[in-house]
Write a structure and sequence with these properties.
alpha+beta; Lipocalin; about 25% helix; Lipoprotein NlpE
Length: about 180
Amino acid sequence: MVRTAILSVAAACTLFALIGCNNRAEVDALQPAQAAELKPMQQSWRGVLPCADCEGIETSLFLEKDGTWVMNERYQGVREEPSSFASYGTWARTADKLVLTDSNGEKSYYRAKGNALEMLDREGNPVASQLNYTLVPVTASLPVTPMPLRGMYVCIQGRCGDLYRLRDRKTAAGRQ
């Protein structure tokens, strides 16, 4: 009697395990479609974000096809110079967020909200405020004029006037 009960429980567990593994084909079929949607693409965004001690921060975000980004921020109503800064780094998309990692390794988060991008807080959650934290799409391309940059700079063999995107130290050491 006890032996029959143990065999029945073992058979039921085996049956549930086999049923649980049966839907792998559906998961495999969905993954290639998702990967195609999340490929890096060139996009430009612009808007005025709230500022605690100025009129607003005129922000332009440029996402490049190679997975890099440049952001130009101009503080409105500020008399001190420079009032405009640029930062850069790499970007990636998750299922629901755009993650920007700057040259210092700090992350900022955005999410799609209609056709716009909404800036999220440092943990990747929506900002609890009535203020406008959105950037709208524009057709502008990355500016070619000089911009003051924030972050770490690397001078390679006397070429400090040129800015290179350095992926790792091997690339930096091998560049002439």
